[in-house]
Design goal:
Number of helices: 3
Strand content: 25-35%
Helix content: 25-40%
CATH superfamily of the largest domain: Ribosome hibernation promotion factor-like
Structural class: alpha/beta
CATH architecture of the largest domain: 2-Layer Sandwich
Number of domains: 2
Distance between the termini: 62 Å
Largest sheet: 5 strands, mixed
CATH class of the largest domain: Alpha Beta
Length: about 190
């Protein structure tokens, strides 16, 4: 990490430099790789101003603070930057968690003893989250047909799923769907 200091209308002392570098080191836990940091310290009459710009692997963060004491300004500006970095890291973590959960909920879990990866029994599907709000609902008309006929209809419609009633057992509703890996799955109800 390279730290560039600029002091205007004041002398940059070693304790100020050390205090600033200590604060920068504490930010490493929020930002994986801090590449470059620009710190501008200035004094105008009684105002002690600190401007910090940190360039990292995932972008940059800036902060400015003015107070009556230089150490107080440094502490406040690094508190602001820490808050920004914490918020950014939490968003990134929550985004990846939500993406993982949605992939797990959308992908059915298969029985490891099965030889047919395309067909999945409805009892093997595990839903980890319950959907709180239904955005849109649709009534589907299910027609009795064989799985082969349903597969042909599914390919013609180019949809993500196709619901049909098995012609052998009219009580059972089945679903053909397109998996994330591009293959086609069949959910059979009992």
């Amino acid at each position: 990490m390279q730290v560039n200091f600029t002091a205007r209308h004041m002398e940059l002392t070693d304790p100020l430099r050390a205090h600033t570098i200590d604060k920068l080191d504490k930010l490493q836990k929020y930002m994986d790789l801090i590449v470059d940091a620009d710190v501008k310290l200035s004094v105008e009459k009684y105002r002690h101003k600190v401007e910090v710009k940190i360039k990292g692997q995932h972008g940059h963060v800036t902060g400015t603070e003015v107070s009556n004491d230089m150490y107080q300004s440094i502490d406040r500006v690094f508190d602001k930057i820490e808050k920004q970095l914490r918020r950014r890291k939490d968003r990134r973590i929550n985004f990846h968690r939500a993406k993982t959960r949605s992939d797990e909920a959308a992908t059915p879990v298969q029985n490891p003893g099965r030889t047919e990866p395309e067909s999945v029994d409805a009892s093997t599907i595990i839903w980890e989250e319950v959907i709180d709000e239904i955005i849109e609902s649709e009534v589907l008309e299910t027609k009795p047909m064989t799985p082969e006929e349903a597969l042909m209809q599914f390919k013609l419609l180019e949809s993500d799923f196709f619901v049909f009633r098995d012609s052998l057992t009219l009580d059972h509703i089945n679903v053909i769907y397109r998996r994330h890996d591009g293959k086609i799955g069949l959910i059979r109800t009992s």
